Amino acid sequence: MKSILLTFAGLVMLTRMACGAESDPCQQPPPEEMARAAGVSLPKLPWHVANIWWNFEKPVEHFTSLEMEVTIDRDVSSDYNLYISPVGIAEINGLSFYGGLQTNINGWASKESQERVHRGKGAIFSRWSQDKKAPIGLGHVRVEADGLCESAGYEGEFCSVRRPFAWKAGTYTYMVTAGKQETVDGKACTWFDCRVKDAEGQLHDVGSLRFEGTDFTYWAKHSAFVEVYSTSKIPKSGIPKVSVTFGRPRINGAEVALKKVQAYYPDRGGPDSPDCAWIRADGERCVVEVGPIFKRDESRRRHDVTLEVDTEKVSPDKKP
């Protein structure tokens, strides 16, 4: 009788696990459990599970637009804190910005209020001050009607716009485009507008940030990352099983000639992560496969990603 009960209990557990996996295609064991099984320790959040660097032949002068295509293979619920950043860090005239899609955006409800609110899935666009030490105020942000904003210094002095956007499995294009110019305190400035285009071609405005200057040079590289982060709403997030594919950077409407593409999985010097992802090439694209925690061969902490590049798609002035 006891063995029958144990068998029944086992069947119930397997059924629940199967139902859970079916309802949540991203489900994995808790990070603590996976880390114990792999014999590793967990660093503090956030975790940059994968970083990609595209190294260009040269900087791009007269920068006006950046486009990054990203494909997410499954729905990731807001029960996770997942940040898919097609713009991990970008730099124009020494001014850095970043952005992407998050499962849980949060920020200030308005410029007048510093009440932090959580709005679920959305997109973000942020920039640092020039030296990342001097505060950069909300005069540098334009917020959409239902958007959020923030100006703070907990990760270097930055300002940001965020907006709810119920993204799901599919292909999106994250876009940053030069907009209106204006003069502030005698200095010429340019507003850069952020939008996300979905697979149907619909544009979702995220907000705008002001940058000092009118003629910009984009540095000779670009990065993207996938991150598991922490919020006051979900202090400890699980690691979702997911595949994220990044297209090549398009600057001023064209793909840029590349020297090489590299993958990096940080474990010392931050933001550190348990090893749970691999980056591989798929034609001209880079695929990040996120799954269980494992022990990485240290010789593969950094590695090249060899793309199959169609040089005819690169504009003539950007070819080597």
What does this structure look like?
This protein is mainly beta and 320 residues long. 9% of the residues lie in helices and 46% in strands. The protein has 2 helices and 19 strands. The strands form 2 sheets. Strands 2, 6, 9, 10, 11, 13, 14, 15, 17 and 18 form a 10-stranded antiparallel β-sheet that branches. Residues 1-20 and 315-320 have low confidence and may be disordered. The chain has helices spanning 2-23, 31-38; strands at residues 47-56, 65-72, 82-92, 95-108, 116-128, 141-143, 148-152, 158-164, 170-184, 187-197, 203-212, 221-228, 242-246, 250-251, 254-255, 258-264, 277-282, 285-290, 302-304. It folds into 2 domains: 1-93 and 218-320, no CATH class; 105-118 and 127-215, no CATH class.
Brief description of this entry?
The chain is mainly beta and 320 residues long. The chain has helices at residues 2-23, 31-38; strands spanning 47-56, 65-72, 82-92, 95-108, 116-128, 141-143, 148-152, 158-164, 170-184, 187-197, 203-212, 221-228, 242-246, 250-251, 254-255, 258-264, 277-282, 285-290, 302-304. The chain contains 2 helices and 19 strands.
